[in-house]
Structures are given as C-alpha cells and as structure tokens.
Amino acid sequence: MKLRLWQKVLIYTLLLAVSLTTLLPFLWMVLTSFKPESEVTNLSPVPKNWSPGNYGEVSTAAPFFGRYYLNSLFVAAWVTFLTVLTSSMAAYAFARLRWPGRNVVFTMYLATMMIPGVVTMIPNFAIMVKLHLLDSYAGLIIPAAFSAFGTFMLRQFMLGIPRALDEASVIDGASAWTVFADVILPLTRPGLITLGIFTFMGNYGSLFWPLVMVKSESMRTLPVGLLQFDSAYNKATHLMMSASVMSLVPPLLLFIVGQKYLVKGIQLGAVKG
Amino acid sequence: MIGTKSSTGVRVAQGTKPRRPIRSDLLMAILFLAPNLLGFLIFTAGPVVVSLITSFTDRSLLTPDYQYVGLRNYSDMVHDALFWTYFVNTAYFFIGLPFSMAASLFLAVLLHQGLRGSSAFRVMLYLPSFTAGVALMIMWKQLLNPDYGAINAGLRSLFGLLGMNVELPQWLNSTNNLLALNPEKVAIDTNQFGLGARDAIIFMGTWTAIGGGNMLLYLAALSNVPEELGEAASLDGASGWQKFKSVTWPQLAPTTFFIVIMSFIGGFQGGFDTAKVMTGGGPASTTTTLAYHIYQKAFEQFQVGYASAVSWALFAIVFAITIVNWKFGNKEDLVS
C-alpha cells in the first residue's frame, strides 16, 4: 500500500512529537545537572552559567559515590556472568540431553516463574543472615545468579538449533561438554547476549534486595546510594541530577551497543507467560 | 507452550525401534543441571515452602522464638481495613493501562508503516523503559515538584497565556485522585477528585512504558498480520479505520490479551520502587501498594509471619490471573 505525502507528513509529525516527549525529560535532566545552585529554580531549562563542577561536587557530598558505582558494576557483572553460565548449562540439559524426570523438573521451573519475588524474599533474607552474608558481595550476587526464566528462554532458543549439527559431533565421539561449548553455545549467541543485557540491567537497577542486604555505606549499590543521597540532598536538584546522569551512563552505553539484540529479546520474552 | 520441535528425539524413543539404543544422559544431565538446580532449590523452591510455613506463625525478626498460630495472620489480614485500602491502591494503577496500551499500539502502527527512519524512532522511544529505575524516579520527583517543578511551571505559563486562573495539581503531595477515592477507607469522597500522587505515578509509568516492551510486541504482531487480509478489505472499499477495526485488531487479540495478563501480574506485584523512592508510600498511604506493605511489615516492623501471609495473598491473586490466562489464552498464538 502506497502512502500519500500528507499521510507521511502526519506520521512523521506524530512520531516526532512523541519522541520529543520521550526525550525532553532526559534533556531537562542533563541541562539541570549543569546548572549552578542559584539557577535551579529558574524557569529556563538552559543554564546561564554552565557549572560542570557539579559532577565533582557529587563526590564531595557523597564521598562513596565512586564506590557505589564500582559496587553496582561489579555485582551486576558477576550476576550476569553466573546467570548466563548456569542458565545455558541447564537449558542444554533440558533441550538436548535425555534423562528420566526431565519434563517434571522443567514444569517445576516453569511453575515457579509466576511466584512473586516477595514470597521468596523473606526466607532468602533469613538464609543470608544464617550464612553471615549480610552486607557482602556474595550476598548480593549469589541469590540473583540463578534464573528460571533465563533457563526457559535459552532452552527455547536451543530447541531451534537443528539437531543434525550436534548429532554429527556426537557420532564423531565428542563429549557432551564439547558439544555444548563448541556447537550449541556459539549458535545460541544472540540468546546469550539478550539474556545477558536483560540480566545486567535488571540487576544494575534492582533496589529491593540491595536495600535489605546492605548495611554499611561502602557496600551500597547505585540505586541504594542514590536513594540515600536523595533523602539527604533532595533540595540540591542540580547535584541530584548530576548523580542521576552519571548512573545512567552504563545503561546508555549498553543500550547503544546492544540495541539490535533487545527487540528480538523482548519478542522472545513474550513466551514467558 | 513447551516447544514441539525438539520432541523428535522423544518420538523416536516411543515410535518404531531406534537404530541405536537410546542411552540416558542422566549423569551428564545432572552435571549440567547441578549449578542452576542447586540455586533453584536453595533460593526459590525451598523459600517458597518456608514462606508458606512462616505465614502460619507469629515469627518476628526480633526474637528467635515463634509459635504456630494457624490461620490467624490470614484472618487478621482480611479484617484489616488497611489491607483492602492497599489492595485498592494497587488496583488503582491499572486505570492507566488502557491508555498506555492504546498509545503503544498507536505508535506500533505508525512505525509499522515502514517509513525511513522508523528504526531510529523505535530506538528513541525504547529509551525510557530501558533506563527505568531509581535515577529516572528521582528525575520525575523533581519534575513533579508542585512549586518549582518543570511540569507545573509549564502548566502555569500555559494557563497564564490563556488568561486562566487554575489551581495546579499538588502531584506527589496530594491524596486527590481521578476516582475520588477516600484515602482512609474504601469509599468515594467527592472532595478527593483531582490529580494526586497516584495519578502522577501513572503519568510517569505511561511515559516509561509507552515505547517499551508492549510497543515492540505489537510491532511484532503487526508484521505477522497477513497482508492479503488488508488488501482484500481495501478492494471491498474499506477505509483505513474500518480495515484496522475489522481486520488488524482481531488479529492482534492474542497479543492484547497477553499484554493485559502480563500487566496485571506485574502490576499486582509492583509499586515498591516508586513508593520507596518517590513517596514513602504516602501521602496518607495512598501510594502504599501490597508489595510495599509487605516490605514495611517484614523489614521495618519485622513481622515476617504476617508479611509472609500477605505475600501469599499476593501469590493467590497472581495465580488466579495465570489460571485465567491458561484457560482463555490461545497459547500457540502467543508463542508464534
């Protein structure tokens, strides 16, 4: 179907209008992060005197800000690595290996995907207390490193890989590990990357678990740190915005690098129900 | 929903005699499964059981001793007027859903026209939902500030230009709401009509979600609508809108159903981050959702027995919705 010119103009106008609405708050945030304190309540969003020093001032006001940053990246990176590793291994067992009870165990995995996180949160907290892992990296990382959803998603992905490919290697005498690492994993790469991005983002942004786990200032992740910073400095809009902008840099980079995997991933995620 | 493509292997086993004997890969399977299964048992399956047992106790985080109290937590819960208020608070957020979904669908239709630059727009629109989190909530808190926030500043100058004198919404500081609900009990109170904290959160949520996953799902669904259907309708002289209504919309039904179900499941569990970051659950508890209530009970008042009971009530709600999904949802359409 051919679109007429006026239709094209209309579509572009609408898309542009919505995109602007989407981007304006981000623009406001960035501009405000460069305002000196005296201009924060000014109506004009553009600073008269640019004040890049705000960014340095954040670490004066919150001396551990850099540490929050490192904590967040460190924890999210480990959670991502472990989740992708354990999920892909389990997915391989479900998609390619034959063993009694496979369907029962898999159904159990599926069933638990709809259990609200708050149900398991309290016992998990008790486990962490028992293991003396409160306020530790292990306590932030380990409970988050196993994903039923990731297993499910990668299993679906692996089912789409023609069996002939790995059967050939099996006939050649390759071990299950070789088939997994050399045949299946490379072919599952887009799925691994998608799961990796979502896991990273989910963990980087998570607030609930770090909030109950972290006691000392030096162990805070960015969301917890930002929250505390906000309750102490919420009148200092310019500093809050500098801190927020800084915390958005890693997601933005990931977004730019990984955006082509995201669309497919969301659509794959639709099978989650 | 469990894929059928793979079952060839199983079928061989059940059908005619296989050429080579099927050996079970049990040992290998255990090795591959162990890390994930161990984590799954320790951090999901085990805690589910423990949580259920805890919900029948008066357990507190402050003392090691506890007693079984039968169903007392559950009966306390249903007799607590606040529980129902929090339930209504949680449900209130769904009034934004039809608008947010309609907007996502509208954008998907625009992007589906395949004009040059569509993918760039798609990327831009996806940005808020990708970066959603504490930082953006802090940003919205500043934008929504009734005195110096950018939103009221904009409204003030807009109404100023129009020569109107309108009382501006107090947003996060106000218990007003569009359904005129009383903040203290489940009742209507016309004085409460207006825009308040819950509506502000709905605006923020809509802004975040509009170009996110739902739009991408609709976009995928639109590309699966057979083009011949639309062409046939065009030949019959159908207008664009008629074509959408009688051809496209019915074809999108499974996707719409899926989005509604997932939004309900997510929505009933939601509201913790916004309450913690933006409102503290206030004003007058109007933004305290069930999830935030559970957090407060467990980690601020340390009544983990009671909190577990409420979390199982939440589970029951989510479970009921999932059953509806299984019963009425066309699963094959969802997977494709």
CATH class of chain A: Mainly Alpha
Low-confidence stretches of chain B: 1-21, 332-336
Question: What is the name of the CATH class of chain B?
Answer: Mainly Alpha
The overall average pLDDT of chain B, rounded, is 87
What class do helices, strands and sheet pairing of chain B give? mainly alpha
What would you report as the Rg of chain B, rounded to the nearest angstrom?
A: 25 Å
Radius of gyration of chain A: 23 Å
- How many strand segments of chain B? 0
Summed up, the domain count of chain B is: 1
State the CATH architecture of chain B.
Answer: Orthogonal Bundle
Summary, kept brief:
The complex is a heterodimer of chains A (273) and B (336). Chain A is mostly helical and 273 residues long.
Q: Can you offer a commentary on this structure?
A:
The complex is a heterodimer of chains A (273) and B (336). By secondary structure, chain A is mainly alpha-helical. Chain A has a single domain, classed as Orthogonal Bundle (MetI-like fold), CATH 1.10.3720.10. Chain A has 13 helices and no strands. In chain A, helix 8 packs antiparallel against helix 9 and helix 12 packs antiparallel against helix 13. With 336 residues, chain B is mainly alpha-helical. The termini of chain B are close together. The chains are: A mainly alpha (273), B mainly alpha (336). At the A-B interface, helix 1, helix 3, helix 4, helix 5 and helix 7 of A face helix 1, helix 2, helix 5, helix 6 and helix 7 of B.
